[in-house]
């Protein structure tokens, strides 16, 4: 076998492989023998059908299978010889059935790139928010979690939940939406609609014109959200002694969440530094695959506007994952199968012959990336940047300099 590069870029290779006709004939013979041992035809015992009859009767099938095997074998041989990391399936551009047989393949590859200068990355981290602020945020979230909804017989006010039918007319077209539930003050609603909903009562109707769009509203029900008071009784319902113990538990939880948020932001900054420092061209097929995943995750269609929004995001994600994989390999940070299987068990994933390899590879890649990011975080130079003070803190502050950076790691 011989091969030559016809065209190449950093991410694409077009090659022509030349194989003596005799090699192809050998593969046809192997396929014939494979078929012959299990084949039964009237007048012949199993395994005794003449080869000439098999080749005559199944010529096209034997040739196709032999050619498929020839392409696969020669392709893999070239990949090993060139040490290419392929990015997807090879595309057969042409097969010349002659002597020698010539096969033209188009291959996308991940380009060679080096990772260095990834230790001691200098980044800033935020100072944690004050305990009293975090505590109030935690209390608010807990009250929302345990809120109750009650129907009211009064005009609607901000934060009420309104159930209504709505007809929307625009550009000569009309559509109806039934039993829509909206919260008055929700920023996803037009401001004019929020204002018009205030003061409406159940069974009332209204027509609202916003620009060229006309909304016909028919209110069915108004409900208010009732938030519980954080007192000893509420704490008791949650299995705690009193409100003081509840506040302590909330503060412990929200402080851990704040630490995690700040750490995640630092890791995001480290990621951006790596993407800025390590640049290389990414194969289009991998970018497109990641782009399609983004569309599926968001439940949105392919369109020119979405390509403009998300193709660049897809490229960055793919490039970052390749960078992380290279660092993982260089620093020997790969997780072992026991760690992977532990996560699989905790997630309750059932493995079988069909999904086992894919699941292990996917979970392993996530764990490798997480472990490598932790490694980069621990080896970064992190400076703490002061928060922007709240008006109350400004009033109480006696420092002359409020913004300063302190080296913390």
Number of strands: 13
Task: List unreliable stretches of 5+ residues.
Answer: 397-409
* Terminal CA distance: 57 Å
Counting DSSP H or I runs of 4 or more residues, the number of helices is 12
Strand coverage percent: 15-25%
Share of residues in helices: 40-55%
The rough form would be described as elongated
CATH topology of the domain at 2-110: Alpha-Beta Plaits
Q: Could you give me the name of the CATH homologous superfamily of the domain at 2-110? A: Trigger factor ribosome-binding domain
Q: Kindly state the mean pLDDT as a whole number?
A: 91
Main sheet attributes: strand count, strand direction, barrel closure: 5 strands, antiparallel
The CATH first-level class of the domain at 2-110 comes to Alpha Beta
Q: Write down the Rg.
A: 33 Å
User: Structural class, from secondary structure content?
Assistant: alpha+beta
| SSE string, helices as H and strands as E | EEHHHEEEEHEEEHEEHHHHHHEHE
CATH architecture title of the domain at 2-110: 2-Layer Sandwich
Give structural attributes.
alpha+beta; elongated; single chain; five-stranded antiparallel sheet; disordered C terminus; Alpha-Beta Plaits; 12 helices; Chitinase A, domain 3; 409 residues
What does this molecule look like?
The structure is a single chain. With 409 residues, the chain is an alpha+beta fold. The chain contains twelve helices and 13 strands. It has helices spanning 21-36, 51-57, 59-82, 131-145, 191-197, 232-237, 243-277, 284-298, 304-330, 337-347, 356-378, 391-396; strands at residues 2-8, 12-19, 85-86, 91-96, 101-110, 122-126, 148-151, 161-170, 173-183, 205-210, 213-226, 381-385, 405-407. Strands 1, 2, 3, 4 and 5 form a five-stranded antiparallel β-sheet that branches. The longest helix has 35 residues, at 243-277.
């Amino acid at each position: 076998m011989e091969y030559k590069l016809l065209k190449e870029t950093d991410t694409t290779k077009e090659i022509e492989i030349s194989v003596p006709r005799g090699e192809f004939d050998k593969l046809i013979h192997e396929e014939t023998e494979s078929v012959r041992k299990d084949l039964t035809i009237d007048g012949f015992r199993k395994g005794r059908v003449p080869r000439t009859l098999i080749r005559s009767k199944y010529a096209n099938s034997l040739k196709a299978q032999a050619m498929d095997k020839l392409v696969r074998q020669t392709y893999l041989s070239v990949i090993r010889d060139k040490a290419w990391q392929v990015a997807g399936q090879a595309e057969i551009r042409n097969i010349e059935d002659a002597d020698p047989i010539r096969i033209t393949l188009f291959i996308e590859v991940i380009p060679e790139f080096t990772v260095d200068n990834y230790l001691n990355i200098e980044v800033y981290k935020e100072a944690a928010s004050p305990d009293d602020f975090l505590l109030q945020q935690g209390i608010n979230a807990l009250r929302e979690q345990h809120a109750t909804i009650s129907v009211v017989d009064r005009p609607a006010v901000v934060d009420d939940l309104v159930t209504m039918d709505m007809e929307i007319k625009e550009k000569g077209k009309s559509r109806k939406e039934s039993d829509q539930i909206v919260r008055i003050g929700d920023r996803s609603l037009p401001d004019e609609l929020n204002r018009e909903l205030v003061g409406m009562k159940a069974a009332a109707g209204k027509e609202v014109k916003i620009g060229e769009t006309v909304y016909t509203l028919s209110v069915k029900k108004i409900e208010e959200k009732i938030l519980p008071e954080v007192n000893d009784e509420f704490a008791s319902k949650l299995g705690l002694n009193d409100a003081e113990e509840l506040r302590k538990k909330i503060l412990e939880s929200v402080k851990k969440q704040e630490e995690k948020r700040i750490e995640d932001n630092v890791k995001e900054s480290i990621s951006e530094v790596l993407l800025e420092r390590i640049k290389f061209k990414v194969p289009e097929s991998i970018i497109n695959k990641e782009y399609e995943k983004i569309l599926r995750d968001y439940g949105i269609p392919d369109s020119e506007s979405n390509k403009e929004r998300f193709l660049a995001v897809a490229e960055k994600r793919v490039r970052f994952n390749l960078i992380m994989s290279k660092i993982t390999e260089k620093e020997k940070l790969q997780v072992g199968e026991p760690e992977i299987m532990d996560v699989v068990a905790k997630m309750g994933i059932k493995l079988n012959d069909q999904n086992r390899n894919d699941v292990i590879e996917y979970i392993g890649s996530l764990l490798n990336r997480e472990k490598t990011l932790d490694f980069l975080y621990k080896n970064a130079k992190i400076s703490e940047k002061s928060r922007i003070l709240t008006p109350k803190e400004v009033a109480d502050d006696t420092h002359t300099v409020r913004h300063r950076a302190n080296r913390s790691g």
